[in-house]
Amino acid sequence: MRSKVRGTLLWVLSTILALPIFGDTSRADELAAAPEGTFSIVVIPDTQHYRGRGTKSQPDSQNPLTNPTFDAWTDWIAASLKQQRIVLVSHVGDIVDKNNREQWAVARRCMDKLHGKVPYGISVGNHDMSGDGNSSLFQQVFPRSRFEDFDWYGGCFDSPSDKPAISGNNANSVQLFEAEGMKFVALHLECNAPDDVLAWADLVLKKHSNRRALITTHMGLGPREKPKTPQDYFDATKGRMKWKKCHGKRGNTPQQMWDKCFRKHNNLFMVCCGDQSRTQALRQRSLAEGGNSVHELLSDYGTNGLRVMRFVPTKNLIEVRTWDPIKGQFCESTKIVPGRDQHQFTLKYKMSVNHREHTD
After folding, report:
1. How many CB atoms lie within 10 A of CB 145?
2. Residue 352 to residue 312: CA distance in whole angstroms
3. 162-206, pLDDT tens digit by residue?
4. Domain for residue 19, yes or no?
5. Distances in Å between the alpha carbon of 50 and those of 97, 134, 238, 256?
6. Residue 327 lies in a domain
7. Other CB atoms within 10 Å distance of the CB of residue 246
8. Residue 59: CB partners within 8 Å, gap ≥ 6?
9. pTM above 0.85?
């Protein structure tokens, strides 16, 4: 009898230990606190959801300009820094919808809630610059001088002195941070980064080859070929895109950015992107030249939530959860992407010394 009870207790214990650290999201609408020994990276999707006077969504409104979604997301992040053990916040770009001073002032106020509290980086999206790559308004609101006193700030690309508004002054930036004994380098690259920016990114990744690398850039996954009809944005074959929006002939497509830079670095393990609201959520695993797996993740959820990626070193897992701070619940399905496995999923990533294989 004693042996039977002991066996039952061992079975219950082993079952509990095997559960994902986030808990079973199919039965609970609560994002559990991050346990000791884990940490989180939060990815903010496109924040184009401005309301009030002068906005695309409410062109006839006379109400003050606001962005309730952006406000709610940064409120939640600021309040959850300790509970979720957040070590980096990454914005995929399209911070504004209209590239004007009024919307940039709202964006600055939203991001100010995180300033000085956690490392963060921003990728400049196509809505955040002109077609030729002029991101001067972004640079005025989020310049290098805003970050250079932080020890986690690793600098930015310096554009040629005759064209300071193109690619320079923090439009392409580096963040350096550590978590659970691991060193990381994060790159935030503008949409369709030109060759000179990619050459700089190459040097940064080589300089920090002893660090684990992740990259956020605005365009990445979506319709592989440039859509010819509105329906193509939804139905065309999806993957790494072979078309572009910014920098004219100098700009690189997501596929070119992979071929010219990303795939060369064996410390790279993740690329995050946004931009494609009609794809919304997509992921793929690619092999770089060194044989390392690179997880490519698209998230552009509208008002339906942001991404919380919890790293679990003892299990060599990254538990990716799409969380809606406004509703206080997990995003399990959307009209565009009904499948749960694009919103709530787990990735394999070797972190512990005693690595064991796990199932995605």
Report:
1. 9
2. 9
3. 788 999 999 999 999 999 999 999 999 999 999 999 999 999 999
4. no
5. 7, 22, 28, 32
6. yes
7. 25
8. none
9. yes
Angle formed by the axes of helices 101-112 and 68-80, nearest 10°: 20
The token pair at 354 is: 């005693």
- Token pair belonging to 25: 């999201």
Domain range for 263 is 38-348
User: Is residue 17 domain-resident?
Assistant: no
Joined together, the tokens standing for residue 69 give: 């979604």
Looking up tokens 């369709």 gives: 192
CA 168 – CA 155 distance, rounded (Å)? 11
User: Beta partners for 187?
Assistant: 174, 215
Give the residue, 360 or 42, on which the prediction is more confident.
42
Report the distance separating Cα 85 and Cα 35, nearest Å.
Answer: 8
The tens digit of pLDDT for each residue in 200-249 reads: 999 999 999 999 999 999 999 999 999 999 999 999 999 999 999 999 99
Q: Residue 59 falls within a domain, yes or no?
A: yes
Q: Which distant-in-sequence residues (6+ apart) come within 8 Å of 53 by Cβ?
A: 61, 62, 63, 64, 65
CATH number for the domain that contains residue 251: 3.60.21.10
The end-to-end CA distance of the chain, in Å, is 39
